[in-house]
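Service request form, structural biology core

Requester: graduate student, group of Dr. S.
Request type: structure prediction, single chain
Budget code: on file
Notes: please return the result as structure tokens.

Sequence provided:
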Amino acid sequence: RYKDILGTILFYEVPGGVIVYVEVCGLPTDGSLWGGTIHGFHIHEGRSCTGDAEDPFKDAGGHYNPTNRPHPYHAGDFPPLFGNNGYSWTIFATNRFYVDEVVGHAVIIHKKPDDFTTQPSGNTGERIACGVIRYS
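Core staff response, request fulfilled:
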């Protein structure tokens, strides 16, 4: 259903944490003039983008949360992606993990924005894109 979503996520380890660079195209739009949408975006605990007909990315599991903290303080909780005519670009810093800790884990883009409140995952809805973090 969302086969046109393509993206790149790069992780750069720096003193005190990690810089995360994200560029995604093909996101669904809302039909408005600017095609704006907001999407939840997280590292998940699973290491696969497989699943079943109901949830094609089910095997990605829940949010990456090695310190067992409440949402939105999971190590894998990221700022939302703000779509503009299906395109989103963002860069941010995090001190919640190091690159070696997340290599092999899945990254998920959700259809709805994260509400930063609902447990355990922010009520972000359907998983619309998935990728696995790899060394390049």
